[in-house]
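A quick aside before the break. I want you to see a complete sequence-to-structure record at least once, exactly as it would be stored in a machine-readable document. Don't worry about memorizing anything.
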Amino acid sequence: MNEEAERFGFAAEYDAPVPYMQRTRDYYRALGYPTPYRWAHYAQVPFAPLAKPLAGCRVALITTAAPYQPGKGDQGPGAAYNAAAKFYEVYSGETAIDHDLRISHLGIDRGHTTAEDSNTWFPLPALRRIAAARRIGELAPRFHGAPTNRSHRATIERDCPELAGRCRADRVDAAILVAN
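That is the input. The structure line, written in tokens, reads:
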């Protein structure tokens, strides 16, 4: 780092944003997909403002974390990418009890982050505390798992309607999506 960069407090040259979109495209190309990966980016989205204050809302947690699957290889905090631990169908679990979810099945930047703190990718305990403190009306009785199976079509046509249906069944006013 040169003297001017130090004087202004600039980060080191190597401390730059991770070019994850190009890395994702390169990864999909290496997997043999015929067309480059395209990030889902919509001009219009179906979101709406809350109809009531958050303190009066029932809130659901939706995560891309996977339930731990013994026998499917290393899934611990320092595990390398583990495709065997992926899941392909929406799942739900009770919010009143603890769950062992992991993120080894996801293509995250393992060089710049770790999975040591599960609250960063499955904040169920934090949401329980927030509900107890009345910052939200209540936590929905179930959380939901959203598959990450690399298919926009499967996500839009199958997984999202299933997740929306489960949230409607739980009379949810708002959902927090923790995409890992």
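Two observations worth writing down. The first helix runs from residue 3 to 8. Residues 54-178 form one domain. We'll return to this after the break.
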